[in-house]
Design goal:
The complex is a heterodimer. By secondary structure, chain A is of the alpha+beta class. Chain A has helices at 18-42, 46-49, 73-76, 80-90, 156-159, 177-186, 190-218, 220-242, 300-314, 323-326, 354-370, 439-445, 553-561, 567-572, 586-597, and strands spanning 54-60, 65-68, 99-102, 114-122, 128-137, 167-171, 174-175, 248-256, 266-275, 280-284, 329-332, 389-394, 400-405, 448-455, 471-477, 482-487, 508-512, 518-520, 524-529, 534-538. Chain A has a seven-stranded antiparallel β-sheet, with helices on both faces. A five-stranded antiparallel β-sheet of chain A has the order 14-15-20-17-18. Chain B is α/β, with parallel strands linked by helices. Chain B has 17 helices and 35 strands. Chain B has an eight-stranded mixed β-sheet with strand order 19-14-13-22-23-35-34-31, with helices on both faces. Chain B has a seven-stranded mixed β-sheet with strand order 12-11-4-1-2-3-28. The chains are: A alpha+beta, B alpha/beta. Chains A and B meet through helix 1, helix 7, helix 8, helix 9 and helix 12 of A and helix 13 and helix 17 of B.
Chain lengths: 598, 700
């Protein structure tokens, strides 16, 4: 189905003063960026200061997301709204100098490992005008095991993390030392946590200061009016984008791998209805199983957000992500559902990644089935040990304990109508926003040796636009023992292709013993590696988009020359014959492509 | 000092030549009297543009080119040759030699992506293709121990493959070579022996910094530039010599200093930011001599980009994160360089209305080809230059000193069609809105390098250079709360002016990790001795100059990943008091940047740096010789003033404004190469040194 290009005639609503609105939108964006920069530069754990696993946002006093920094999508579509509402419900009186620590997935947070700090922006007359939010993944959140992804936890009690349902942590800009002490008693490597907490406070207070200055400069009434205009403008952009999508309804399904507590895997279905005439999209996730006795269930924030990511990934143009554009999206959830609203004490320890990514995939696969050139393939499953939480004792530093999440490369980008899969996507909910660790920085910080990190040829989901290939990595302890904990997906169920594209390679991991022998490891779990041992990882590849034999010959020649695809696979899957000197055989290619078309 | 009018015997004249995208700028310093000239840049053979502008100068000074060149003692050159070659793919066929198991360092980079939902941006290609990447078996660990020895047979096999592949340059970047370089050094020996004449770069010598992607990227960029830049520089030297120049040839570096042409040929990565890095040097000088300000924002506005840098407390800003192309999608240089932020906002930036009805300016630019609508060279989209023309800021008959006529009707028609009609505004309101949006974009960019780094722009001096700076600089200063705007007399050629002021300089760094908690006094003494000795050796090679060595450290709180550069308050760290001074210096710098001070925390120091600066003899208090302006008395013209509307503005030629006299806004001050809009309520004063200074009144 083809759609008319953008036509100035579709304009319905225009900003009253486009110049003033552009200026204020830029100012708000600058504020969230400045908050992000502070957190990134001053954070202590690798999760923050290397991987950038955090987000910063501004919310209106009535709980609508106004502006978020460009950060991992799973953090900032829905969630800030729910957390703000919980804050106001539990703390009806908000004062300047307040700050709230929040990580409860039952009150709007994503999962317990994401600590959020909410600071109400209260102006001189005492009214609460906005809330600034800093959410940061912690290196440790006090789980029973040294990992922030407790996939095997049967409920929140088995996780063991401290849960803070919007707990006041500062009054008059000073810490409640009780809360700080609780964290220091339960979180591993407390001085690292404390440094990260300081960085979060710095970022939030900088955001508060800037918002107060902006309100002072423009007057609160003008600022509130401009916020409404920004919502209206964003909604109009969404209207224009949705009108270019194909009309129709479709259901797509994908499945998370089997897991303790979910031995048959977790099937996820998304029913998507696109109504371009009305410029509305409905995503129904209610026809899915109930919660499982494991940590893979989604929180409400993650269920909503994962569905919205699939839609935003499929929009034909950039649309600002805020409560204005969200007015056109209806995500339908069910209480007690694995991809719905969890009831306490259901565990949501791994809510931001594995099953959430499957939800995103189901949505974009459904949209892909509505029309050629829309939607995209599925991203490679998350959780391979290149992103494991590693821990142990550092013999180089007198046996001091360490724990942190590695962020080596997780590839996984799905083929899409425009491009091959993004190589460093990490996972669907991340969108490639994280930074990748430096091998040297990791080896300096931890007693490990990273032997290999490279792309693995012939693993990509073939397609006109191919998925990102698997990454092969190998690491182990340099001295002493190393514990590696991971909760992977994509070992059994590969990333699906779309529009005739093929599946990506599955993931796997093995232990290489001191003699060099390889031993397969489970898709999730913990491995303790001794001297001379290492873990060998192949991450899940992204699915392809469009039939492989329609991929441009020049692109295949480049793939072969650069070692992404072997000559053999180029011929068998893509129908492109390249001889031993790297020369294209045009006649053989035409014949083979003819065969593949049939 | 020479007597005015006396002949220039011997060789005492200095030249500064900056080759930009459109123009090649020359400033000739003849005994303290500066002369400004411009000629078109000749991209295919930039040396020709250099010789052209020297011919223009000789003509203007009533000499032959060889007579002029024979007077020269020094020629300082800023060149975009290296950056152009990198951007257009014109560099050498380069191989990347990496540690076995890690062939994709250049492909993975450090991850990161700009827009999470924009899948229209393709994943970037690596700087060196995988097909030219070769793995060297052998491994060093973080502490320098050899985990696996270098497999020399494998290295020899790779070198045979490199010869087969007709590689023109080789980059060697192995893991942990910064701690133990033996493997890189051995590869170098084999390359020298088995591939004589093919240039190579070793990562630990070029850029001894932690983080393999950054180091490998610098190494590959440097190697890829070697054949081209050594060819260019020797051609420049030879042809200048043939034309009559017998003096010293220096090249402006990305780090805001200059190096002998031979040194740049040996490490050409230093010439990537060769031109723009000089603007803050000039800006600092003028602001210090004119206003004594601590914080100076330097804005260099050309046709396609707006380059900004911030000078604080007299220090030229530096950054480690310089990218060729967009951040995360381009290639990092991995080198500290003068921190010049460049945004796509210049006279050529195109104004448009997006499908939500919002007015946008840029990032697309009409450049010089086809150029703004008013150039009548095929462009029909409205640009910032068109808006300035429609508002009366530019004189259609005196653009570039009258060498080019602008078409006001074409500018208005373009604005009408693309902006005024869709937004239902008048052409004037549309043009004013375009200027305002462009101004906001520039303000935002300045805020990124000031406010976001914890620098308050209020009370600072805004120094403007480049042909387009004067158009909205006063408006920008107002938005930021700057105290004053300064347009130096040499503003139109700010980078060339900077080159005449800058020092011969080089940085020396030793990576040596320690913490204030368990401070390694001995190791640090060795590190500081090493960099101090290197700095002294560098200075000795620069005869006839006075030398200063500045020490600094890269430090952080424990577990932080990003160091900040902090000047070392003492030259040696021998006592607890010295150590306390270092810690205090860090705490203060961290608090200033990030609003957090953790007094009780130890401080980790990662690297130790000495910067040698050798001031070359030469008088910097020059004045620009007058001439080149127009002599006819100027009347007034109607211009659109911010928040006022149409007003009759006095139009004054810069040359007719005597030092000490002023012009009250609304007014336009024109010279051959630039136009300055003096807003109502402000006034522009010509200083004794000839610069235009505009005070911004306090609006509150």
């Amino acid at each position: 189905m083809t759609v008319a290009a953008t036509d100035p005639g579709v304009l319905e609503r225009r900003p009253a003063d486009p110049v003033e609105l552009a200026v204020v939108a830029n100012r708000l964006k600058a504020i969230v960026r400045r908050m992000s920069n502070t957190l990134y530069r001053t954070g202590r754990s690798g999760v923050l200061n290397t991987a950038r696993d955090f987000s910063c946002a501004i919310i209106t006093a009535d709980d609508r997301l106004l502006m978020a920094a460009d950060s991992l999508p799973i953090h900032v579509l829905s969630g800030p709204d729910l957390m703000s509402a919980a804050m106001r419900e539990l703390h009806p009186e908000l004062r300047a100098g307040d700050a709230f620590l929040h990580n409860s997935p039952y009150h709007g947070n994503s999962h317990p490992a994401d600590h959020s700090l909410l600071v109400p922006v209260v102006v001189a007359d005492g009214t609460h005008q906005f809330t600034v939010l800093v959410k940061a993944h912690q290196a440790d959140c006090g789980n029973a095991l040294p990992t922030t992804y407790m996939g095997t936890a049967v409920d929140v009690y088995a996780e063991g993390a401290l849960i803070f349902p919007v707990v006041k942590v500062q009054t008059d800009y000073s810490d409640h030392a009780d809360v700080i002490r609780m964290c220091e008693m339960r979180l591993r490597v407390p001085e690292q946590w404390r440094g990260d907490y300081l960085a979060m406070v710095g970022a939030a207070r900088i955001g508060e200061r800037e918002m107060l200055a902006l309100a002072e400069e423009l007057g609160t009434d003008s600022l509130q009016r401009l916020a409404e205009e920004w919502f209206d403008y964003s909604e109009q952009r969404m209207v224009n984008a949705v009108r270019q999508l194909p009309a129709g309804s479709a259901v797509a399904e994908t499945t998370h791998d089997p897991y303790p507590g979910a031995p048959d895997g977790i099937p996820v279905a998304a029913a998507v209805e696109v109504r371009p005439q009305e410029a509305r999209v409905t995503i129904d996730l209610r026809e899915n199983p109930d919660s499982y006795p494991c940590g893979l269930n989604l929180s409400e924030a993650c269920a909503r957000t994962a569905a919205m990511i699939g839609l935003f990934n499929s929009l034909p143009e950039e649309v600002p992500t805020n409560a204005g554009s969200f007015r056109r999206i209806d995500v339908q959830l069910r209480e007690g559902c694995v991809v719905g609203v969890p009831r306490h004490p259901t565990s949501t320890s791994v809510a931001t990644t594995n099953v959430a990514d499957r939800v995103t995939a189901a949505v974009q696969l459904a949209i892909a089935s509505l029309g050629e050139g829309h939607g995209m393939a599925e991203a490679g499953g998350f959780g391979a040990p290149t992103a494991a939480v590693i821990s142990g004792r550092d013999q180089r530093a007198g046996g001091a304990p360490f724990v942190n999440q590695l962020f080596l490369v997780l590839s996984g980008g799905p083929g899409n109508p425009h491009n091959d899969g993004w190589l460093t996507l990490c996972h669907a909910g991340n969108g490639g926003m994280l930074y990748v660790d430096s091998v040297e920085v990791d080896e300096l910080a931890f007693p490990i040796l990273i032997r290999t990190q490279r792309i693995a040829a012939d693993t990509e989901g073939a397609g006109r636009r191919r998925g990102a290939p698997s990454v092969e990595a190998e690491y182990g302890p340099l001295v002493g023992e190393l514990t590696v904990i991971y909760a992977g997906d994509g070992h059994v169920n590969p990333a699906l292709g779309a529009a005739g594209g093929e599946r990506g390679a599955t993931s796997r991991q093995e232990r290489r013993d001191a003699a060099g022998e390889l031993h397969p490891l489970e898709g999730q779990g913990a491995a303790t590696l001794g001297a001379g041992e290492s873990i060998v990882v192949f991450t899940a590849a992204g699915g392809g988009y469009g039939p492989p034999h329609t991929r441009e010959v020049e692109r295949i020649c480049h793939d072969v020359a650069e070692g992404w695809v072997s000559r053999k696979r180029a011929a068998s899957v893509y129908g492109v014959a390249i001889d031993g000197d790297g020369e294209l055989d045009r006649a053989a290619t035409a014949r083979r492509r003819e065969e593949l078309t049939r | 000092m020479h007597d005015a009018g006396s002949p220039h015997r011997g060789n005492s004249v200095r030249f500064a030549i900056d080759t930009g995208g459109t123009f090649t700028d020359l400033i000739v310093d003849r005994g303290g009297s500066l002369h400004l000239f411009k000629a078109f840049t000749t991209p295919d053979d930039p040396v020709e543009g250099v010789l052209d502008v020297l011919a223009v100068a000789a003509d203007g000074l009533g000499l032959s080119r060889s007579e002029l060149l024979a007077e020269g003692s020094l020629l300082i050159h800023g060149t975009t040759r290296a950056i152009n070659a990198l951007v257009t793919g014109g560099t050498a066929r380069t191989a990347f030699l990496t540690t076995a198991g890690h062939p994709d360092i250049l492909l993975f980079r450090e991850g990161g992506r700009a827009e999470p939902f924009n899948f229209k941006v393709p994943y970037p290609e690596p700087l060196v293709p995988r097909a030219l990447t070769f793995e060297m078996p052998g491994r060093i660990a973080a502490d320098g121990t050899e985990v696996e020895e270098l497999d020399e047979l494998a290295v020899r096999r790779v070198i045979a493959e490199l010869r087969e592949a007709e590689v023109e340059a080789v980059a060697v970047a192995l893991l942990w070579s910064i701690v133990e370089p033996s493997h890189e050094l051995r590869v170098a020996e084999l390359l020298t022996r088995l591939m004589p004449g093919v240039p190579f770069t070793l990562s630990h010598l070029l850029n001894p910094t932690l983080r393999e992607y950054r180091r490998a990227s610098s190494t590959c960029i440097d190697a890829a530039l070697k054949p081209l830049m050594s060819g260019y520089l020797s051609s420049l030297r030879q042809r200048l010599h043939e034309a009559g120049f017998g003096g010293r040839l220096l090249i402006a570096t990305s780090q805001g200093g200059m190096l002998d042409a031979e040194d740049v040929a040996a490490a050409p990565i230093h010439s990537i930011n060769s031109g723009p890095s000089m603007a803050p040097v000039a800006g600092r000088h003028y602001a210090a001599s004119e206003a004594g300000a601590d914080t100076v924002i330097v804005a260099d506005a050309g046709g396609t980009t707006f380059d900004i840098s911030v000078v604080r407390n007299g220090l030229i800003p530096r950054t480690r994160e310089t990218w060729i192309g967009p951040v995360h999608q381009g290639h990092i240089t991995g080198f500290p360089s003068v921190d010049v932020k460049s945004i796509g906002a210049g006279g050529g930036s195109i104004a448009w209305v997006d499908d939500g009805g919002l007015l946008r300016v840029g990032p697309r630019s009409a450049g010089s080809q086809p150029g703004p609508a008013c150039y009548r060279r095929g462009g029909n989209e409205p640009t910032l230059t068109d808006a300035c023309l429609a508002l009366g800021y530019l004189d259609p008959d005196f653009f570039l000193g009258g060498s080019m006529r602008l078409d006001t009707a074409a500018a208005r028609a373009a604005i009408e069609r693309a902006v005024a009609t869709p937004l239902a505004l008048s052409v004037e309101d549309s043009a004013a809105a375009i200027v305002r949006i462009a101004t906001e974009g520039m303000v935002h960019a300045i805020e990124e390098v000031t406010v976001h780094q914890g620098i308050d722009p209020r009370g600072s001096v805004l120094v403007g250079g480049g042909g387009a700076a004067g158009l909205n600089l006063v408006a920008i200063a107002r938005r930021l709360g700057c105290a004053r705007v300064l347009i130096p007399e040499t503003g139109a050629a700010l980078s060339a002016a900077g080159a005449l002021i800058t020092d011969l300089s080089s940085d020396f760094t030793v990576t040596h990790f320690t913490s204030t908690e368990e401070f390694d006094f001995e190791g640090v003494a060795t590190a500081l001795d090493t960099v101090a000795r290197q700095a002294q050796e560098f200075a000795l090679a620069a005869p006839g100059s006075s030398t200063a060595v500045e020490f600094s450290v890269e430090a952080r709180y424990p577990r932080q990943n990003w160091e900040i550069e902090v000047p070392l308050p003492v030259e040696r760290i021998e006592t607890e008091a010295d150590l306390a001074a270092l810690a205090d210096s860090f705490h203060s710098a961290h608090e200033q940047l990030f609003a957090i001070r953790e007094e009780e925390s130890p401080v980790e120091v990662v690297s130790w740096r000495a910067r040698a600066r050798c001031a070359l003899p030469g008088d910097v208090e020059q004045t620009v010789a007058s001439g080149s302006g127009r002599d006819v008395p100027l009347a007034s013209r109607r211009v659109w003033a911010n928040r006022v509307g149409w007003v009759d503005a006095e139009v004054v030629a810069m040359d007719s404004l005597r030092p000490g006299s002023y012009v009250a806004g609304p007014a336009i001050v024109e010279s051959s190469f630039t136009t300055v809009v003096v807003d109502p309520g402000t006034r522009g004063t010509r200083s004794a040194a000839g610069h235009l200074s505009i005070e911004i009144e306090d609006e509150s």
